[in-house]
Amino acid sequence: TEDYVPSFGGFTRLAISAEEFQAKRASAKFEEIEAAAIRQAKPLIDKPIYIPTKWGDWIFYYANPETGGRLVPLDLERHKDSASGEIFTDKRIVESYRTILHNHVNRAAVSLGWAYLWTGEDKYAAEVKRILTTYANVYHTFPERADRWGHNGFLAKYGGRRYSQSLSEAVGVIELCKAYDLT
Q1: Which of 46, 111, 144, 170 has the smallest set of CB atoms within 10 Å of its CB?
Q2: Where are the beta strands (DSSP E) in the chain?
């Protein structure tokens, strides 16, 4: 019915149980745990992470197509092979770099979530909220499933939306769910 209100139990549930949370807070090592979380999250507050608003292609395309050499980003659109000095700007490489950026955002959200959990400081939760609301606002604009073979929608049976495969999509959303749960 419309009056139904779901019950989710104690805070938190996914990343750590309420009992584990209480035990860690009461432990002699809590200050170390809290300091480590702050150390990881502080740079993400000082310089908020860039959140891609377009999908990412297969990560293995982020290489020099001739040599397989790993690339280094110069900016969002230009990527350099350190060995050859060649600069790449093609669509596939730019999109695959976005996958790397999406992965960074996932990890950042979790780090910020842990910092919020241990410190209770709203600045960490606010940054998680920025990440999650950005994705909520743009997710519908990503391809309706796309895969490495050029299929889209129903034909991309292994495709994702933020990523080019559903497995990567699932792993990424688990991290975002943990960040949500921690905050």
Answers
A1: 46
A2: 71-73, 79-81, 87-88
Evaluate whether 131 touches 123 at the Cβ level (below 8 Å).
Answer: no
Model confidence at 18, in pLDDT bands (50, 70, 90)? Answer: confident
Tokens of 160: 């994702």
Residue 81 CA, chain-centre distance (Å), reads 25
Q: Which run of H or E residues covers position 26? A: helix 18-26
Among residues 78, 80, 48, 44, the alpha carbon closest in space to that of 63 is found at: 80
Taking residue 183's Cβ as centre, other Cβ atoms within 10 Å add up to: 22
Query: Angle at Cα 111 formed by Cα 17 and Cα 77, nearest 5°?
Result: 140
Q: Which amino acid is at 80?
A: K
Structure tokens that stand for 97 in this block? 């770099």
Tokens 């495969």 sit at which residue?
A: 165
> By the 8 A CB rule, do 161 and 96 touch?
no
DSSP string of 90-116, one letter each residue: -HHHHHHHHHHHHHHHHHHHHHHHHHH
Task: Quote the CA–CA distance of 44 and 105 in Å, as a whole number.
Answer: 10
- Up-side HSE of residue 173: CA atoms within 13 Å toward CB? 12
CA distance 28 to 16: 18
